[in-house]
DNA sequence: ATAATAAGGATATATAATATCCTTAATAAA
DNA sequence: TTTATTAAGGATATTATATATCCTTATTAT
């Protein structure tokens, strides 16, 4: 069970957008070039973020994406769920219903105890992701980044807006 | 990101094995028939459990599998990891290293803050799974099961040992 | 001896992840 | 008004993974 690459791309893009000047848009082209990922495929992830109301896009020259709300109100979970969906990492196939001893009168029963435990673990994962914001990680990232690299990166994007 | 069906099968099989009389083996054939899943494919999951030391198999007529240790010492996590592997659900592809402004002198740096947050969520998921034992869920399952169904199920397996 | 079984290698099939291509409508700038 | 640029998203191709089956081997109880 492994998350798709688009989750990582989406999170990094949100962090970049969080570091941009207010109101300015960054085109998919540059987000893709900067991260070294395929533009057309990254575009799908950004569309998912846009549909989820996390970022907003505008058309035409100078178009692109920007955050749709403050970075401190964007959780990791919302980004992950925008890209991967909201359904649980565990899908119960109800194989206990294949028990050959089972009579029709016995069904349906409450949620399977195995599924319940798996759902609880899934929720623990989501709770942790819910507690992390794009702004918090953005601050941590920039704090650790060498000052000159930070400056060069800011310049790289400002030249392309 | 979704867990494979083998995880569910493996957990259900462990619960069944936990309810069997001491020392007795249950053949893959019956575990597959009981759960309504393909025998040959289930066999792969059981082999994984066997390699992980969770269950043990024996050959020949009356052969099959039994738990290799007490059910209260078998965690959900060990079963999940036996089947799905131990690597994190998030794989960091280090796309920050594709930053065109990055100079060679800057690398390598500490773990990416995004990856760190994702790893933490992964660990929260595992921690929850680690806290659940096969015996605890087995007890919960049997407690909820109608008495006659429980009896019929026990009889079904005892006829096949 | 014989039949039953786990173990596991090899391979096939189905499903999902990854990636590209193309059209459309909107927008800014020339 | 014209042109270039862009998000949006449909369609399709490619690759990787999950699912499933088949087969051989060594072991064991009867």
Name its key features.
homodimer, mainly alpha, two-stranded antiparallel sheet, DNA-binding
Molecular structure report:
2 copies of one chain form a homodimer. Chain A has 161 residues and is mostly helical. Helices cover 53% and strands 5% of the residues of chain A. Chain A has 7 helices and 2 strands. Chain A has helices at residues 5-18, 28-35, 39-51, 76-84, 113-130, 134-144, 147-158; strands at residues 55-58, 64-67. A two-stranded antiparallel ribbon of chain A has the order 1-2. In chain A, helix 1 (5-18) packs across helix 6 (134-144) and helix 4 (76-84) crosses helix 5. The longest helix of chain A is centred in the C-terminal third of the chain and has 18 residues, at 113-130. Chains A and B meet through helix 1, helix 2, helix 5, helix 6 and helix 7 of A and helix 1, helix 2, helix 5, helix 6 and helix 7 of B. Chain A binds a DNA duplex (30 and 30 nucleotides) through helix 3.
- Shape of chain A from CA axes? elongated
Compressed to H and E, one letter per element, the order of chain A equals HHHEEHHHH
Uncertain residue segments of chain A: none
Total DSSP E strands of chain A: 2
Q: What class do helices, strands and sheet pairing of chain A give?
A: mainly alpha
Strand content of chain A: under 5%
Termini Cα gap of chain A: 38 Å
Determine the mean pLDDT of chain A: 94
- Strand adjacency order, main sheet of chain A: 1-2
Share of helix among residues of chain A? 40-55%
Spatial extent as radius of gyration of chain A: 21 Å
Draw up the topology in text:
The structure is a homodimer of 161-residue chains.
Chain A: H1 5-18, H2 28-35, H3 39-51, E1 55-58, E2 64-67, H4 76-84, H5 113-130, H6 134-144, H7 147-158
Antiparallel strand pairs in A: 1-2
Helix pairs in contact in A: 1-3, 1-4, 1-6, 2-3, 4-5
Chain A binds a DNA duplex (30 and 30 nucleotides) through residues 2, 4-6, 25, 27-29, 38, 40-41, 43-44, 46-47, 50, 57-65.
């Amino acid at each position: 069970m492994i998350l798709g690459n688009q989750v990582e791309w989406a999170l990094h893009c949100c962090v970049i957008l969080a570091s941009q000047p207010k109101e300015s848009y960054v085109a998919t082209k540059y987000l893709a070039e900067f991260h070294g990922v395929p533009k057309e495929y990254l575009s799908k992830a950004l569309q998912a973020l846009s549909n989820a109301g996390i970022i907003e896009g505008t058309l035409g020259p100078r178009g692109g994406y920007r955050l749709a709300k403050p970075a401190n109100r964007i959780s990791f979970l919302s980004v992950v769920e925008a890209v991967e969906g909201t359904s649980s990492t565990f899908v119960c196939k109800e194989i206990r219903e294949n028990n050959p001893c089972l009579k029709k009168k016995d069904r349906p029963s409450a949620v399977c105890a195995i599924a319940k435990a798996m759902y609880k673990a899934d929720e623990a994962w989501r709770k942790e992701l819910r507690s992390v914001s794009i702004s918090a990680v953005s601050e941590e990232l920039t704090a650790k980044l060498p000052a000159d690299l930070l400056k060069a990166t800011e310049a790289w994007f400002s030249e392309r807006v």
